[in-house]
Amino acid sequence: MLRFFSLLVALLYLVCGAFPLLGQKVRGLDPAKSITEYRHGVWTVDNGLPQNSAQALCQTRDGYLWIATQEGLVRFDGLNFKLFYKDNTPAVSDKYINALIETSTDALWGGGYNGCLFSMQHGVFTKHTIEATAEVRALAELHGRVWIGTNAGLYVWERGATTLSRCGKVFR
Questions:
Q1: Do the beta carbons of residue 127 and residue 162 sit within 8 Å?
Q2: Fold of domain 2-23+51-171
């Protein structure tokens, strides 16, 4: 059953990710340029990143690059890194973040280990409650609903809701 839910979440993610590309010209590297003409940068702990592994990336419409790491959620503005984790942002209840998305309402959603699921909109973080042992592995949005794939099952949050649902069971 878990394999079915994992496949369903992966399929939803692929389908949701493909819709913005329909009818648009897909851009890639300019074939007229040499690869050496492109700038390449690497950021590490030496530049302020809390650790060198990125679990997920999301660039929000306001231009920030958000990085899910094993030490917390990181916001990068092109120059500086800012770390959000349970000590300075209680809604980010675990330091190991696995998944990130930005929804159509400009909310950033993230999740990780130990039931860590949060959203951030207009600079305000909100904690969402799921099973304490759940590990968030995937996030997707479809028709105003945020789908949350975990090792404990599939959850859904509907726009404007104050609760998450899982297989008919409601968690507050």
A1: no
A2: Methylamine Dehydrogenase; Chain H (2.130.10)
CB 101 within 8 A of CB 93: no
Q: Are 146 and 154 in contact (CB under 8 A)?
A: no
Longest dimension (CA), the chain: 56
Note the pTM of the prediction, 2 decimals. Answer: 0.74
Q: What is the pLDDT of residue 149?
A: 92
Q: Using a CB cutoff of 8 Å and minimum separation of 24, what contacts does 114-120 make?
A: 116/92, 117/148, 117/155, 117/164, 118/91, 118/92, 118/93, 119/146, 120/91
Sheet of 81-84, strand order: 56-59, 65-69, 72-76, 81-84
Long-range Cβ pairs for the range 160-169 (8 Å, 24+): 164/117, 164/128, 164/129, 164/130, 166/130
Q: Which residues contact 164 (CB under 8 A, 6 or more apart)?
A: 117, 128, 129, 130, 148, 155, 156, 157, 170, 171
CA nearest 69: which of 110, 102, 107? 110
Please give the structure tokens belonging to residue 139.
């996030």
pLDDT along the chain (172 residues), means of 10: 53 49 55 79 88 93 94 93 95 95 96 94 92 92 91 85 60 46
